[in-house]
Backbone:
């Protein structure tokens, strides 16, 4: 019989009880071992369907990693596990050496430095571009502090800086709902940047974009790598080819292949399950 | 920062708010002055009846603002806001009951008439201290506030939202209505609390007291309005609107959505409680009928008619619909509910942003 998670932890005597351990609320991100994200043996099943099956994946700091895979390969579920939306049945997920993602809530994970861009652009349509960035700004999030919160000049500068980076300086006072699809995607990336995340998860950034917008997005993501670690999930192979250094192919919930684009494309298993036609 | 600059900053680029505060000042000061100074034969002389009617409208307007604050700005549709209104009203009613003293029918110095009638020996514990004005006023704030806190905490923590939240708020007010109908609850059952004599030693029927209550209500409406305006204009307000437009997104950015919703809901509940407390001395009675779910829905209709998400629209809606109600229930009582239903349908179909939205459209066309 499978014990509930809490009982299992109680029965596991390889470590002291959790309550004896000092609670580490917001440990600092520690990447001294050259890895920012550890996913080990993660399994998630929904009603018997294994969305993730012993998935193991490591990402190095400053990397620009592309994750590809057919529909249902587990890309979105993996993002959900990292951001705390879905709890895995087994496995471990660490952010740096010391931050256990499985113990933190969604907002705590966001504050620890993981930002996620959703597939559909979800900006706040009634707020202006500027206000959208202001809302996303890193800082104290407690309700009563917000009643009297005012922008400092550094915060103002930071917003201007991000506005320039995402190329929306001219639209700063426009309501976000009036932006084009591509502009909304950039605004959303800008909102992620306001939180100064160490790790950026980007879900299908160029879906529905014009070729020009796609090109701009590629430039933007490449310029972010280095300072931030960027993980991109994408279907558009041309786009992946234009930005990727390391590509991970997911298939049926686990990693099928990993390496640079040329190696992965040459891998016969990958050709069989995903790429289909020779690229 | 002086008060004056804060108020003027709140009014910046907000014509509707400026008009509202102007009209409120005119009504709040002008009507009492006209009542006192003009001869009774004058066309402009407002009667005592008119004064208490307008006073009643203003408490409704405050209730409408409290609903608009959570619904218009945070998307939380409460169909049970009259529960907070009625609880504030009951707290005030209990104070007024204790002031009757030996002037009741049974002449008991401590027990209200209905308790003597039920042959109760002593005052229940929750009636203790309600003879003190400050304590009763504290309860006006605390009881609705605590109910909103507990109820909101349970609901928002479990992420109950949308129509489900509306339904359970409706159930809440209905349950409270049934409870308050029971004589054993100790709130006068069916008849509620009435036959009030005086407040803080002033005779409730006296013109001076009526004018005082009228002005206090106008002040409460003005301050409540400014407080809401301040909240929605702050970054807290922008977070709240962001939660309305994309709750999941706001959570991912790192806002504790439940806390924001909860504090806004509590503030809104307290505001509704204050409205109820001001309502009771002006109409002279509070009974379980105030908890009726229909009343709560009617209050939501005020906001719809006026224009959701503007605050001053809610005030306009409350006054318009209640003026219609006053007119219909005198001139053509059986038609009132049909008129209300028609109004709701017409506004939903043709004025999605309410009367305020229509006025703004006309203004833009002219410009």
Residues:
């Amino acid at each position: 019989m499978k014990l509930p998670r809490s009982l299992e932890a109680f029965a596991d005597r390889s470590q002291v009880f959790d309550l004896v351990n000092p609670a580490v609320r917001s440990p600092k991100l520690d990447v001294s071992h050259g890895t920012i994200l550890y996913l080990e043996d993660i399994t998630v099943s929904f009603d018997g369907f294994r969305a993730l099956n012993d998935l193991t994946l490591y990402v190095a700091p400053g990397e620009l990693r592309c994750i590809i895979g057919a529909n249902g390969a587990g890309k979105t579920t993996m993002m959900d596990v990292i951001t705390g939306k879905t709890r895995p049945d087994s496995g471990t997920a660490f952010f740096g050496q010391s931050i256990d993602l499985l113990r933190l809530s969604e907002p705590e994970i966001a504050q620890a430095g993981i930002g996620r861009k959703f597939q559909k652009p979800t900006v706040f349509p009634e707020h202006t571009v500027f206000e959208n960035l202001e809302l996303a700004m890193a800082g104290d999030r407690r309700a009563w502090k917000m009643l009297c919160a005012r922008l400092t000049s550094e915060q103002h500068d930071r917003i201007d800086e991000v506005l320039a980076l995402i190329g929306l300086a001219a639209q700063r006072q426009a309501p976000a709902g009036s932006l084009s699809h591509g502009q909304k995607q950039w605004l959303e990336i800008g909102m992620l940047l306001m939180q100064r995340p160490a790790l950026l998860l980007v879900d299908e950034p160029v879906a529905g974009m014009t070729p020009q917008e796609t090109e701009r997005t590629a430039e933007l993501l490449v310029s972010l790598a280095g300072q931030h670690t960027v993980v991109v999930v994408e279907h558009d192979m041309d786009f992946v080819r234009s930005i990727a250094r390391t590509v991970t192919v997911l298939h049926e919930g686990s990693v099928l292949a990993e390496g640079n684009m040329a190696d992965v494309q040459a891998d016969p298993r990958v050709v069989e399950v995903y790429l289909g036609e020779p690229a | 920062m002086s008060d004056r600059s804060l108020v003027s900053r709140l009014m910046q680029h907000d014509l509707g708010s400026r008009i509202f505060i102007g009209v409120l000042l005119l009504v709040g000061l002008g009507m009492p002055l006209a009542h006192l100074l003009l001869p009774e034969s004058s066309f402009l002389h407002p009667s005592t009846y008119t004064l208490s009617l307008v006073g009643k409208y203003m408490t409704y307007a405050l209730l409408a603002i409290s609903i608009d604050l959570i619904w218009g700005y945070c998307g939380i549709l409460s169909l049970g806001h009259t529960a907070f209104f009625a609880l504030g009203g009951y707290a005030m009613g209990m104070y007024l009951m204790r002031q009757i003293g030996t002037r009741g029918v049974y002449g008991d110095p401590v027990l209200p008439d209905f308790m003597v009638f039920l042959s109760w020996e002593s005052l229940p514990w929750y009636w203790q201290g309600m003879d003190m004005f400050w304590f009763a006023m504290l309860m006006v704030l605390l009881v609705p506030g605590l109910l909103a806190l507990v109820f909101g905490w349970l609901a928002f923590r479990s992420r109950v939202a949308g129509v489900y939240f509306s339904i359970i708020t409706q159930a809440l007010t209905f349950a409270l209505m049934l409870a308050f109908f029971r004589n054993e609850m100790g709130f006068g059952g069916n008849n509620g609390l009435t036959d009030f004599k005086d407040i803080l030693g002033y005779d409730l029927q006296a013109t001076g007291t009526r004018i005082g209550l009228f002005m206090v209500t106008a002040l409460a409406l003005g301050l409540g309005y400014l407080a809401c305006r301040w909240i929605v204009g702050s970054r807290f307000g922008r977070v709240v609107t962001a939660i309305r437009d994309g709750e999941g997104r706001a959570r991912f950015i790192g806002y504790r959505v439940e806390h924001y919703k909860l504090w806004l809901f509590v503030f809104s509940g307290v505001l509704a409680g204050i409205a109820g407390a001001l309502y009771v001395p002006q109409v002279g009675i509070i009974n379980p009928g105030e908890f009726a779910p229909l009343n709560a829905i009617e209050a939501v209709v005020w906001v719809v008619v006026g224009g959701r998400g503007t605050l001053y629209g809610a005030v306009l809606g409350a006054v318009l619909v209640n003026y219609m109600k006053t007119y219909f229930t005198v001139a053509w009582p059986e038609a009132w509910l049909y008129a209300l239903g028609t109004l709701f349908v017409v506004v939903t179909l043709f004025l999605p942003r309410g009367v305020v939205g229509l006025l703004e459209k006309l203004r833009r066309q002219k410009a």
Notes: The CA atoms of residues 43 and 53 of chain A lie 5 Å apart. Strands of chain A lie at 37-46, 49-59, 64-68, 90-95, 99-100, 114-117, 199-203, 229-233, 246-251, 254-259. The mean pLDDT of chain A is 84. The longest strand of chain A covers residues 49-59.
